[in-house]
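Supplementary material to the annual report.
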Amino acid sequence: MRIDTLALVGVGLIGGSVGLAARKRGVAGRILGVDSRPEVLQRALTRGVVDQSRPNVGSAAAEADAIVFCTPVDVIAGQVIEATSVCRPGALLTDAGSTKASIVRDVEGRLPQGAGFVGGHPLAGSEKQGPEHANAELFEGRVVVLTPTSRTDDKALSQATALWEALGARVRLMDPEEHDRAMAMTSHLPHVTAAALAGVLPPEWSGLTAGGFRDATRVASGGPELWAAILQANADGVLDAMDQLDKRMAEFRRSLASGDRDALIALLQQGKLLRDGLTC
Amino acid sequence: MRIDTLALVGVGLIGGSVGLAARKRGVAGRILGVDSRPEVLQRALTRGVVDQSRPNVGSAAAEADAIVFCTPVDVIAGQVIEATSVCRPGALLTDAGSTKASIVRDVEGRLPQGAGFVGGHPLAGSEKQGPEHANAELFEGRVVVLTPTSRTDDKALSQATALWEALGARVRLMDPEEHDRAMAMTSHLPHVTAAALAGVLPPEWSGLTAGGFRDATRVASGGPELWAAILQANADGVLDAMDQLDKRMAEFRRSLASGDRDALIALLQQGKLLRDGLTC
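Predicted assembly:
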C-alpha cells in the first residue's frame, strides 16, 4: 500500500496517530493536514504528524489520493461531501468517526456518481486529546470496522482495507446500523456510566478512590463536546443500551434488597465470565 | 515499628501483600500464616509470604503480637472474637475488610475487656486473587482507613497506625458508618456497574471492545463470592449509591431523548471535572 498524497482532515489524537503510523510505515509519500483549530494544526506540524497544512478541506482534497476524516461525528458528512466536489477521480474518502449510520446515510444521500467513500471506525483511542498524544502504534493489532453498503464502490473498500491494514490494524466489515448498536454497548454506554459515576461522587470522597474507581471512570476525562456529538448521533442505540443496563442493575438491586446471595453471586459471575474472556 | 510475631489470617492477595511488605521493610521478626484453604497457605509459604503456617486462628493468635485479618468480610468478626480468647495481653488485632460498620459492631459487641481491636481497610487491591499476585509495594502511598470508635483502645489505634505507615501507607481515620457510605460510592457501586456492563454485553460483540470497555469493566473479574459478601455487608449503602447513579442516568436519558445537547455536555463536563481531579 502506497499513497502518494494522504490528507488528514482533523489532526487531533486519531488523525495525528494516522499520520504518525503512515509515516513510520512508509504508507504515504506526503501527508497534508487540515484542522479548523489553527493551534492544533500548528502542533501537528511541529510534531511532524503532517508535512504541510492546507487552509481548508477543498484545497487538501484537490491534491489528495486518499483523505481520512478524523473530525467530530457531527461534521464528518458535510466535509466528505465538500471534498467530493473537488477531489481527484479515484481518490479514497474514508472516516474515523465513532458512529456510522447517520454519517454513511448523510454521505450516500448526496454522493456524486463514482466518488469512492467508505465509512470506517478504528476501535482505538484515548481519553487524551490532541496531536501531542498521537501514537504511531495506536492501531497496531486493533480492530478497524469498515461499513460498506450496497452503494459502496468496491475499489474504495479495498483501498480503505489496505490502508488500515498497512497501519497495523485488523479490518472487520459491518453494516453501519449494526456497528452503531454494538458501539452503544461496547463504548457509548460505558462512557455514560463512567461520566455518571464520576459525576455523582461527592468531591470530599475523591481521596478515598482507588484503582477500581479510577479505571471505571477513566473515559469520563474525554472531551464533552466530542462525546455529546457521538451520543446524540447514536441516541436510539444508547437509550436501548441504557435500558438493558437498567434491567441488569434492577436485578442487582433485587438480590441486594432481598439478601439473596446466590442470585447476587450469579450476577457477579456472569460479569466475570464475560470480562475474563477479554484480553488485558 | 517492630513486631516480633505478626500473624496473617488469610494469605491471599491482601494478606500476602502485607506479608511481603512487612518482610521487605523489616517490620516483623517472623510471620505466621493461617488460611482455611490448604493450597493457598502452601503457595504463600512457597512464595515466602509467611515463614510458618499455623492450623487455625487460635494457634496463631496464641503466639502473635499483632494479627491482621485479611479474610472475607463475612468471617472476619467471628475470627477476631475467636482470637481474643487466646491472644496475648496487649496484642493488636486489626483487619483489612472492605466494609467496616458490621464488622466493628459485631466485634465490639463481643470484645473482652482490654482486647486491642481496631477496624481497618487498605484502599488498594486488584481484581486478581491469591498470594501469587501479592506485591510488597501494594500499600505504598495508598490510603488505609482505620475506623476507631469510642470503645477503641488508644494503644491499638496507635499500633495499627504505626503498622500501616511502616508498610508505606497513609492512615486516615473515619467513622465505620461513614467509611461504608463512602466505599458504597467509590468502590462498591463501580463494582456493580462493571459487573452489569460486562454482564449485558452480547458475547458476539466482545471482539468489538476497546480500552474504554476494558477499563470500565476491569474490576468485574474480581471474585464473585468475595464481592457478594462485601455488597451484602454494605447493602443499604450500595442501594443508596445505586439510587444516586440512577438519578444521574435518568438525566442523561432525558438529555439524549430530548436532543438537549447543552444539558448533555453539562453532564459530561461534571464527570470530567471530577475525574480529571483524580491522579492517574
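Chain B touches chain A through 84 residues (CB under 8 Å).
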